[in-house]
Design goal:
It is a single chain. This protein is mainly α and 415 residues long. It folds into two domains: 184 residues, Up-down Bundle (Growth Hormone, Chain: A), CATH 1.20.1250; 218 residues, MFS general substrate transporter like domains (Growth Hormone, Chain: A), CATH 1.20.1250.20. Helix content is 74%, strand content 1%. The chain is built from 16 helices and two strands. The chain has a two-stranded antiparallel sheet. A hairpin with a 5-residue loop joins strand 1 and strand 2. Helix 4 crosses helix 6 and helix 12 packs across helix 16. The longest helix is centred in the middle third of the chain and has 42 residues. It is globular, with a radius of gyration of 20 Å. The two termini are 26 Å apart.
């Protein structure tokens, strides 16, 4: 792969994740502060990405792989997405905002897989080349958060408008990317092509079934973080919350380097357990910290994101990569992503919203007072139950061997 192609792909991924980081982190703060939406309503809007993640594999597999060139589909989806985000920023009612955001997520979520597949098609060896380019996506998310926080735009519609403008830019830029025609054009369209029977049969093995169930369950309390952390930090008086939250992505980059070292010493079971335990600890820190003398607890909870994400999700991707045959790896990864960031996050968006609403007191004039301690304790308890069940039920029969390689085809998922 030439330096020119590497630079063009890096710019694509930077813009892709800048868009997501610009609007998704702060949308709950905007909805709650400006419109006084309920916790249930905020959770549902944040959970629109989960519906997009459920639809994305079908869209990519049945449309992108068979009908249209990837770069053209990317361009069309981002242009449509930019328009939808701008329209969403102009709405004031829950029904209108949710409907437009949902349509937007149906456009955006497939682009995560499309940017990955386009990148892989241009690479000689994705396992070696993809990591150095994908890191620019994380950088895009970080720059978006730092910018939004520095400009003090978290409680406004401006993050959506900024994301809309960048989406339009990426839409136009996508048409200039290397031509990537569909590989399966002319083949019979079938849902079985997405999740082959052989991939589903992997769940017959106890360890795989336990991993899949635990992954689904842990994604339910995880949505508390994605949907409500920015609102929580702003509500408790933390300055530049969006900027501070990018510390999570910074720690993610650092922890990625530690995975091979820990893998050799802990093995897959305790790597996964460490990731779950980090979620429990994060929520406990949020529950007992404050924005003054104990603000370090908030910082620690944010910086745990590297362990929370890398030790569970990246380790899980490695585990799936090892358990699947070469022909089934992409399908198996797609199936687990569907279970976690689709179904798990969807259930989590509903539950997190219901719990936040339960612990919210509405004051005269529309202001809302949140019992954040109770909210985070609930999330910590749910995460702890999943952790204990996983430790009891998961038993990997085959010994794991050390590796310094990460799977080449990582799905595009929240950082």
């Amino acid at each position: 792969m030439t330096l020119q192609i590497k630079t063009r792909l890096g710019a694509m991924l930077f813009l892709e994740y800048f868009i997501w980081g610009a609007w998704y982190v702060t949308v709950g703060t905007w909805l709650s502060t400006t419109f006084h939406f309920s916790g249930q309503q905020v959770g549902l809007v944040a959970g629109a990405t989960a519906i997009g993640a459920i639809v994305a594999p079908f869209f990519v597999g049945l449309v992108a792989d068979k009908l249209f060139a990837t770069e053209k589909l990317l361009g069309a989806l981002h242009l449509a997405g930019g328009l939808l985000l701008f329209v969403a920023s102009q709405q004031h009612s829950f029904t209108a905002i949710y409907a437009v955001i949902l349509l937007y997520c149906l456009c955006f979520m497939p682009t995560l897989a499309l940017t990955n597949s386009l990148s892989f098609r241009q690479m000689t060896d994705p396992k070696i080349e993809f990591g150095g380019i994908r890191v620019l996506g994380t950088l895009g998310w970080i720059i978006a958060g730092l910018s939004i926080g520095a400009m003090k735009l978290e409680a406004t519609a401006h993050p959506l408008q900024i994301a809309a403008a960048v989406s339009m830019l990426l839409g136009l830029y996508s048409f200039t990317l290397p031509h990537t025609p569909p590989l399966a054009r002319g083949e019979k369209v079938s849902v079985a092509n997405l999740f082959p029977r052989e991939a589903i049969l992997l769940l017959n093995e106890r360890s795989m079934a336990t991993f899949a169930i635990a992954s689904f369950l842990i994604c339910i309390p995880l949505q508390f973080y994605y949907a409500f952390t920015n609102l929580f930090l702003n509500d408790t008086g933390v300055h530049n919350a969006a900027g501070k939250m990018t510390g999570g992505q910074m720690s993610e980059l650092f922890c990625m380097l530690l995975i091979p070292w820990f893998f050799r010493r802990l093995g897959v079971k305790y790597m996964l357990a460490a990731g779950m335990a980090a979620w429990v600890l994060r929520y406990v820190l949020f529950a007992f910290g404050n924005a003054t003398s104990l603000v370090w607890m908030f910082w620690a909870g944010i910086l745990l994101h590297g362990i929370c994400y890398d030790f569970f999700f990246v380790t899980g991707q490695i585990y799936i990569d090892r358990k699947s045959s070469l022909a089934l790896r992409s399908a198996a990864q797609g199936m687990i992503t569907f279970i976690t960031y689709g179904l798990g996050m969807f259930v989590g968006s509903w539950l997190s919203g219901a719990v936040v609403e339960h612990y919210t007191t509405r004051m005269p004039g529309g202001a809302q007072v949140y019992d954040w301690h109770a909210i985070w304790i609930f999330a910590a308890s749910a995460s702890a139950l999943v952790l204990l069940a996983f430790l009891f039920a998961f038993a990997e029969r085959e010994p794991e061997t050390a590796t310094n390689e990460l799977p080449g085809e990582l799905e595009g998922i929240p950082l």
